[in-house]
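An example makes the point: we print one protein in full, the chain in one-letter code, the fold tokenised, without further comment:
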Amino acid sequence: MNRLWLGLGAALGLAGVALGAAGTHALAAGLDAASARAYDTAVRYQLVHAAALVALAAVDGQGRGGRTLHAAGWCLVGGTALFCGALYVRALAGPLPLPAAPAGGALLMAGWLLLLLAAVRRS
């Protein structure tokens, strides 16, 4: 399963760098201040959670995985998609009618909590 986390982390990292570059070079002139902040927040959170997935892959690759660690990974992936996706849409097209960002944020927090539980159980 560590190859999955590594691949997902790498894909999120690649997309985060590309979206960050697009935001800086192509979109910056067309975004108001609030939209630019939302876009920057999305890029930052995406890159942080991409790195977290790569770290999760390293831990999983050492045979220290388990259901809790895998659940954490899925929460981080889903939370990043919902939270960052909602912020990208908000920045480019306006707010979503659904509470995607809060749901994504809750999933991100759940992922970090599960990582903490996995660490405590292993020590």
Remarks:
- The radius of gyration is 15 Å.
- The CA atoms of residues 16 and 43 lie 6 Å apart.
